[in-house]
Amino acid sequence: MTETLPLAGRHALITGGGTGIGAAIARALGAAGAAVSVVGRRAEPLAAVAASVARGQALVADVTREDAVARAFAQAAAAFGAPDIVIANAGAVETAPFHRTTLDQWRRMMAINLDAVFLTAQAALPGLRAAAHGRLIVVASTAGVKGYPYTAAYVAAKHGAVGLVRALAAEWAGTAITVNAVCPGFTDTEIVAGAVANIAAKTGRSAGDALGELTCHNPQGRLIDPAEVAAAVLWLCAPASRSVTGQTIMIAGGEVM
Predict the structure, then answer these.
(1) Distances from the Cα of 114 to the Cαs of 74, 144, 155, 254, in angstroms?
(2) What is the biggest distance separating any 2 CA atoms in the chain, rounded to whole angstroms?
(3) What is the residue-level pLDDT of the chain in tens, covering all 257 positions?
């Protein structure tokens, strides 16, 4: 007798699903039996992730735009039914001392790291309400619960995302929807690789020394593997996690918050 996969019959939509944490989540949920819609701006990496799961599709959309998010959810539903697992993962970081942070930079950080979560949650709600086990999971950051220098706009946006998670969990507590945030520390992704290169270029340090500026925050002395974040997300998607809501789950090697 064939064992039923834990997410068989489910449909997961993941924003920022073409690379890094989003791609790892897409593959983990796909391996668990879910149909997967990956959403993002770059067609090529999205297509590669969609092709790596049994039932996947790639949807190109700018998730900071309301019309684009609505269109992506409609396309996702047309293929696999309304998503009952939604992962708001899209994000980006720009660094600058606060006195050099421009209003345009501030708005960019708010748009991708907070506005996109708001738009994704609103578009997801009808499908989540109709589901037996609706799941909204926001990939935030340790920057959602503590401060880091030179990233004021990013930190503010991620704090906003965590606050939104807590508000929605409280508002929807009487439903079958759970809302949680996973908060990775510095993770082995393109974003962190870019940060290492930026530190090295600005300080003249080696790439190894620049990487040490980030791994020093993790008591385990390493970057987080995207697969570790995906494993936490997979657990939150299970029906047995229905009592876990409004939480910020740290995946950071014991970093002090």
Answers:
(1) 22, 11, 11, 26
(2) 64
(3) 346 899 999 999 999 999 999 999 999 999 999 999 999 999 999 999 999 999 999 999 999 999 999 999 999 999 999 999 999 999 999 999 999 999 999 999 999 999 999 999 999 999 999 999 999 999 999 999 999 999 999 999 999 999 999 999 999 999 999 999 999 998 888 777 777 777 777 778 887 877 787 888 889 999 999 999 999 999 999 999 999 999 999 999 999 88
CA 58 to chain centre: 16
Q: Are 122 and 90 in contact (CB under 8 A)?
A: no
Residues 73, 124 contacting (CB under 8 angstroms): yes
- What token pair was written down for 185? 């520390």
Instruction: Indicate which residue of 61, 68, 112, 154 is catalytic.
Output: 154
How far apart (Å, rounded) are the C-alpha atoms in residues 97 and 106? Answer: 12
For the entire predicted model, the pTM comes to 0.93
**11-185+224-250 adopts what CATH topology?**
Rossmann fold (3.40.50)
154 classed as catalytic: yes
Task: Give the domain ranges of the chain.
Answer: 11-185+224-250, 188-223
